[in-house]
Structure prediction request, 434 residues.
Amino acid sequence: MATSQVLSEQEWLCAVQKRLRTNDCKILKVTVSQLGGDVGGFLGDHLRVRLSVMTHLSSSPETQEVAFFVKRIPLDHQSQGELVQSSQGFPKETGLFSTLFSLYPESENPWAPQCYFVRPDALVLDDLIYEKFRLAGRKKCLDYAHCVLLLRALAVFHAGSIIIEENQAKKTNKPCRLNELYPDLLFENFFVDDNSFKTNMWFHSAVESLASSVILLEKYKRNINVNEVNIQTFKKFIYQLYEIVKPSNKYRNVVSHGDLWTNNMLFKYDEDDETPVQVRMVDFQLVRYAPPAIDVMTFLHINTPQEFRIANIEKFLSLYHNCLGEELRRHGYRVEDYLPWPEFRESCDVYNIAGCIYAPCYHTFNIMDESVLRERLTPEKFSEFFFGNRYELVEYCCETDPDYKERLLTELEELVECMLTRQSKTFEDTSKSN
Prediction:
């Protein structure tokens, strides 16, 4: 792949100088390769870059290798590129790394890769794979150790936005809310009722696919469209997500990731290659300003099986809140002043509905077998797969992949049960201010 397709020689040099913290260097060679492996993200083109660099030019020159990961707007896949462009996620992510994220306090627990160069169509980041990080597995449910690491990192990330707001409030002597300071970065671009955002078309597709799939649930087959499970009511229930993800007037809001599935987190492992010891979150194209409980509950629903989540929920929520408090305390703030435990615990119950909706929406497609996905993510089939009703494919995967069937239908049944439990109440009834 020609390096001219990625960055200019001067741009590579800027990235290298920032990475090595010296101007006394020059680039000898640049090698670019496409990220391989399992199906990756859907909102970018991912490249790995190796640079041979000569340093200490003015004293004792030596050569070393520098590794970067480059994320850019897809160039060779029109449908995917249109999805990225319409979602406005790429300018959001590049803007976050070039402005807001640079304001976050340094932490003992980094939550994202370092960024070394930003261009409107490209990000140059640490190559986490080079640093021995890896994905846990696109179809894999996370165990307790993985969840603990991610929740700790998430708490540090969330705490950072509170710290920035409170530091700014001290300077100006008036309340500070980051969504007001950065409205072009912290707007909702995932669940927004506007078809100019192709992410909304994806959401419609997921809703139609789930509504069609209710018939696959043995428990509700006989009640379809009658009394207990009305499909139109079911769709209306899911579409509450448009309201759910908005900033709250009751709970403290934070800068939130918004897209916490397994392909957006990389783990580093101990010498046994099994015990995770570090984690980095990636892909910040769907960041929003919302209560932290949305990130927490959607992460747990998307990445853990129901029985495991229910058995460990109190431990996970307590751990997250303790880590949030520790990070705030390191910077002179008390969690009790911003998100006390009773309020946070209540918000997790309120926003559990987000997790119930998120998980099956995601899993109508992103836990399908790799061969099924690769066949349908081609430029010719991408739009039909991403924006059409996937019911027939869901039915096929349920027939041919027992793990897919077990996971998706368990989540779908939990969503139906959530709807039936809350039928007399809207989300606004449970989330409004006292």
Notes: The two ends are 59 Å apart (CA to CA). The longest helix spans residues 144-172.
